[in-house]
Each structure stands twice: as C-alpha cells, then as structure tokens.
Specification:
Length: 709
C-alpha cells in the first residue's frame, strides 16, 4: 500500500529525456491507416509482428521497400521516428499504431509481441491516431516537417519544444508545443491508460492511509475562462460528466465522460477482446456494449470463422449485445440503440452518432470505456456548419455532406494539398445546425462523414419529432431482438426502458446563443444546385459535378453505412428505366438484413438482378477493402465512406457520390452532366415520399407480431 501511495510504480520508470536523438523515416504526403494496416491483411491484426510486415506494402512516393528502408534508417545507430505531412487519417484501427511501434518502438518487459513508446511526428496527426499513440506510450508531436528528410538524424527537445540538427542545438528545424504536458507522464507510465489506472490507484492508496493528494503527477487541466454560453457538444459532454444541467465542458478541459453506448466491430474486436482480458474485465460498466460482424461475414477467412464462433459469447458473458454474421453494418444497428444527448465511443472511425455524440477510438480505449464506463477526453473545440434554406431539385443529403469540404476549401479553411495542410475540422467537433427536420437516418449521413473531415466527433441539432419517431421504431426493434434470442436480453431490455423514459419526457439540449466556435461555415441551400462529388482519391477533394462530367465509369458501388433503404429504392427506380444489362459492373449491398428483406418484398432485388447487378450480403462489402474488391485500375463511382488510394481496389480511381448519382453513372457508363443527372432525378421527385420511407419497425407486422407472439 505504501509503495502504491508513493507512486513507485511510476517513479521507478524512466522519465522523458531532455533530448531525444532519432533518425527520420519520412513518408511524404498523407499516411492513412489503410497504408499502415492494410484492410486485406486485417485477419492478422491481433498478431502484431505478422501484421506489421504489411505496413506500407503498397509503393508510394519515397517508399519503395518500407521494411528495408526502416532497417537502413536503423543503421544510423539511433531509434527511428515516423515522420509525415499528414499521419493516421481514416479508420480507428489501433493496429496502425501497433505496426509503427513494432518497427520503431521499445519492447515491453514480460509482454511479448507488443511494443510501446516510439516517436511520431506530423504536420497533422489525425485525432484518433494521436490518441492511440498516447495509449501506447508513444510521443506524438505536431509540427512543420518540411525541413525533416528521410534518414536525417535529429535532436528533439521535448521540454523546450524544438527539433534541431543532430549535435547542433542552435540549428532549429522546427518548433512545437505538446498537446498537453500530461503526455510526459503518459510516456513515462507506458501509456495513457496505465497512467489513468495507476494514478487512480495511487490516489486511493493515499486516501486509505490518510495521506494528502500526490504531487507526483502532472494534473490534466480542468480550468477554463468564464464563457457566455456552451455549444451543444459541450453540454452533452457536461451532462455525461455529471455537471449541473445546462453547463458544459470547455475546450482544453480534461474530463472522463460516462459512456452510455460502446460499439465494437469484427476487424478490431479481437484486439478489443485482448485488451479487455488485459484489464481483467469480467463485466461491462458501460450501459450497452455491442459487437458486430459486418466487416468479415461475407467472405470470412478461417480465422474470421473462429472469431464468429467465439467472440459473441465473450461479449454476452460480460453483459454485452452481440449481433450475428449477416446482420449488417455496426452503425446501422448501434444508431438504433442510442439515447439522445448521451456520449459513447466505438472501435470504428464511423461510430458517429446522429443523436448525442460519440468519440471513436482505438481498441485499447474502447476496451477501457466498455470495462470502466468512462473514457478520458481532452475536450476539443467545435466548428459550426450552419445550413439555411431548402434543398434544390435533385440535390441529396450526400451532396450536403460534400458541400461541407467544398465550402471549407472556398473559404481557405481546408486544403487538398498535404504539405502544410490546412484542415479546420481536424481534431475538432463538427456541430451542424439548420437541418433539424431531418430523419435520424438522414442525419447520420452528415455525422458519419465527419470521420472523413478528421473531426473528433459530431453533434447535430435535431428536432424532437424525428427523434421520437426513431425511438418508437427502435423500441420495437429491440423487443424483436429479444424475441429472436439476441443477448444479453437484460441489457437490451434496459435500453428499451431508457428509450421509453425519454419518450415520456422528450427534451433535448441546445447550444447557447453565446457559444464560441473555432470557425463558422454558412451554407445557403439555394446555392447548392448541382451534385458535389469527392474526386480520386481524396475525400477532401470536393468538386462540382460539372467539373468532372464525362469521365468514363467502369464500376459502381451502392452500399456502406452512408446508405439507407431510401437510397436503394431511389437507385432501383432509376435502374428500372434501363432495358437490358448495364454497361458497368454494379455492386449493391444494403446496410442491414432488415433493409434487404424489405427491398426484396418490394421487388427491388428483381430490378437489381434484371440489370445484372451483383448483390452482396448486407454489411460493409467493398467499403473497407478487406472483402471483395473492384478491378485493378478501374474508375469507380461509390457511395462508400472514403476513397483513399488502393482502398476499394488496387490502383482504382474512386469518386464518392450519392446513390442517385451512382445509379445514373451505372446506367450511362460515365459521370453525367448536371443536366443529364437532373433529367433522371426529376423522375424521383414524382413519388418522393414513397421512395424515401424509412424502416419504422413499429409499423411493420412481421416485427410487431413476433413480439406479440
């Protein structure tokens, strides 16, 4: 007890040195987590040494033989630091961090096949990746990297905030300031999670011995200046931290909000399982933890089949809810389990709640949140996107998704170029107003795409009526799950009761008029009068359809968590006008089995078959790139979440677009002109209410009758 009280577990570990000498391993441009942890190799993620062999396996500028080049850097005799212009964008996979640290980190005593510490330097480091670096005890530094070149030997002065040429302390190459001084303690403790746990045990030991609070640790900042108001996100987090109603957590403040909902999917789930074992977690403290199998169900490898058979019991035995292979995409299910104005997280970067707010994380932090019911958070700033007006003919919610980067580029808040990249959204919360009338399924398109902005999270101001409609439907879906034998039934029933409690008193938090934002972007819908696409191969590269019209299209994908049943009806109605086989290869993958069942009953699958479409099992399908893939070097129009190089297929050029534009492109074999597109889209306006109907389970007899039986 005395040892714990005195913090010997911490003080016996080496602190961050005054100066670190490292050799630069530089990857120019943007490194996303697909580069560091390729989707086709997802099966090996729990085996860190094996998976690390796939890191940067696709040649790119400056990288021809990544493993060989790392070994060459090590010949300089110093530790190697990973350096890039933009590092860690994309998915939340901690395996990306594991791969870097396997090559550039330090062994962890008595813990084989894992490494920690290490140094990562980027002009921009994506927030989830930054957090997984912290969790692993690495030192993440954001600074200008233009003067850092491959194989340079540099000296890093962490406390002075400067990087110099080796042995030349006055030859400053870059200046920096760590995100928080607590990072020094995180590195010394071996990671953020060990620090939080150890710091807490030290505090409890001192309290039990009647000792005053320890001064050994750097305390996260909880101070903030007085403000005139709080944003919606700040209020939601404030409520989750137990603050008085209406008060919020301000940017820069450290907090540990309660996690009401936690999601896990199957390519990160095995790593989350291992982290839960490390935490000796026998029961979840988060109110609802859900596991899906959407990334591997369609084309499972033998190791995936083992996961399908073993992981459900692991989750259910701890009080979690497990879906089944073939059920569909994690987000399309998890969104239907949400409680308004609550906080959650998930081991997938697209865990972006349409109601409430979520902060996606790597597998280690997800395990910590599930096990303890809380998650560490340095509250980010917010960026407000404010819409006004009405949607113009033919314009879809996906076009508004792409309008956000398009307008940010116009206002100088976002650049496509990676060198000295600007991204006002990076590491901040995207807050959206002016579209409160949207259905929750529609709102998710906007929150989902905040991942592509590298935002820390997203909060949307919604009206209470569509939320109440959504929850009434979701209560029936959850009751149907219990009737179908899904478990843990007690957890599901508890969530039903929470939804019914909100429906009995439907109140929503709102931002205060005096709330302060890092930036505000105003978008008048009357000015968005033609589709907006994101061009190959960068989800930031938003352009008007007229700028790219005529480009030949080889393949089209309609699917991913960015779609809902209305998109497939719209695509089906457009495709039904086309006689014969399409000139393109069309892939169709509804997000859930419930969508697929309803579309089949309504005859849309017969339309997809008539035109020669390839229908996939409900799930992620092409989106992640670890299952089926498009042809090499093809041009693709896709409704998927992101279009990083090689993600959907080797050398593929991928445009991101709405399902409606994707269907027209499949028919024409090219990107249409705006006038061509609007001619097709005008047909959809004739029965819009029928097309864009959503799954209200409380109105569908096959669900209500199952519950009654």
């Amino acid at each position: 007890m005395k040892s714990w009280a005195e913090g010997e577990w911490f003080s016996k570990r080496d602190p961050v040195l005054e100066m670190l000498t490292v050799t630069v391993f530089k990857v120019p441009g943007e490194t996303n987590t697909d580069d560091l942890s390729p989707a086709p190799d997802a099966w090996s993620r729990p085996d860190v040494p094996v998976h690390a062999l796939a890191m940067l396996k696709n040649p790119r500028e400056g990288i021809t033989d990544a493993i060989g080049q790392i070994e060459e850097a090590k010949k300089k005799g110093f530790p190697v630091a990973y350096v890039g212009d933009v590092v860690g964008t994309g998915s939340s996979r901690k395996s990306a961090t594991n791969s870097i640290l396997w090559h550039m980190g330090d062994d962890i005593p008595y813990c084989p096949n894992k490494r920690g510490k290490g140094v990562c330097i980027g002009n921009k480091i994506a927030p989830i990746f930054f957090n997984t670096m912290e969790d692993s005890g690495a030192l993440p530094i954001e600074c200008d990297v233009d003067n850092l070149n491959m194989y340079d030997v540099i000296d890093i002065y962490p406390y002075q905030g400067k990087i110099t040429k080796h042995g030349e302390p006055d030859s400053v190459l870059s200046d920096f300031q760590l995100k928080t001084p607590v990072i020094y303690d995180e590195v010394q403790a071996g990671g953020r999670i060990p620090l939080i746990i150890g710091r807490g045990l030290t505090a409890k030991a001192r309290a039990s011995l009647g000792m005053p609070p320890s001064t050994l640790f750097r305390i996260p900042s909880s101070d903030a200046d007085a403000v005139e108001g709080y944003t919606l996100a700040q209020k939601i987090v404030g409520r989750a931290c137990g603050l008085p109603e209406g008060q919020g957590v301000l940017p820069g403040q450290y907090c540990e909000p309660h996690m009401t909902t936690v999601g896990s999917q199957d390519t990160t789930g095995p790593m989350t399982r291992d982290e839960l074992k490390d935490l000796a977690c026998l029961g979840f403290s988060a109110d609802l933890v859900m596991q899906s199998f959407c990334h591997t169900a369609a084309y499972p490898k033998p190791v995936d089949v083992v996961t399908h058979h073993t992981l459900p019991d692991f989750i259910r035995n701890r009080g979690g809810v497990s879906l089944r292979p073939g059920d569909g995409i994690i987000h399309s299910w998890l969104n239907r389990m949400l409680i308004p104005d609550t906080v959650g997280t998930g081991g997938d970067s697209h865990t972006r709640f349409p109601i409430g707010i979520s902060f996606p994380a790597g597998s280690g932090l997800v395990a910590f949140a599930a096990a303890t019911g809380n998650m560490p958070l340095d509250m980010p700033e917010s960026v407000l996107v404010r819409f006004k007006g009405d949607l113009q003919p033919g314009i879809t919610l996906r076009d508004l998704v792409h309008a956000i980067p398009y307008y940010a580029i116009r206002e100088g808040l976002l650049t496509v170029a990676k060198s000295n990249k600007k991204n006002i959204f990076s590491g901040r919360i995207l807050e959206i107003e002016g579209l409160g009338h949207l259905k929750c399924e529609q709102a998710f398109e906007l929150s989902d795409a905040s991942a592509e902005r590298s935002a820390a999270g997203c909060a949307i101001k919604m009206n209470p009526e569509p939320i109440a409609e959504y929850l009434r439907s979701n209560v029936v879906m959850l009751q149907w799950m219990i009737a179908e034998g899904y478990g843990d039934a007690r957890t599901i029933q508890r969530r039903v009761e929470a939804m019914e409690a909100w429906l009995a008193k439907p109140e929503l938090l709102e931002a205060d008029p005096g709330a302060v934002y890092a930036a505000t972007i105003d978008i008048d819908l009357k000015d968005v009068n033609e589709p907006i696409v994101c061009c190959p191969n960068d989800p930031d590269d938003a352009k008007l359809l007229s700028d790219v019209a005529g480009d030949k299209v080889d393949e089209v994908f309609i699917g991913s968590c960015m779609t809902n049943i209305g998109h497939f009806r719209a695509a089906g109605k457009l495709l039904n006008q086309f006689p014969g086989q399409l000139p393109t290869k069309l892939w169709v993958a509804p997000p859930t089995k419930m969508d697929a069942t309803q579309l089949t009953a309504e005859g849309y699958y017969s339309i997809f078959g008539k035109v020669g479409a390839r229908t996939e099992m409900p799930g992620c399908s092409l989106c992640m790139g670890n299952q089926a893939r498009v042809g090499d070097s093809t041009t693709v129009v896709s409704t998927s979440t992101r279009n990083f190089p090689n993600r959907l297929g080797k050398g593929a050029n991928v445009y991101l677009a709405s399902a409606e534009l994707a269907a027209v492109s499949a028919i024409l074999g090219k990107l249409p002109t705006p006038s061509e597109y609007l001619e097709y889209a005008s047909e959809l306006s004739k029965d819009r209410d029928d097309t864009y109907r959503y799954l209200n389970f409380n109105e569908l007899p096959e669900y209500t009758e199952k519950i009654a039986a």
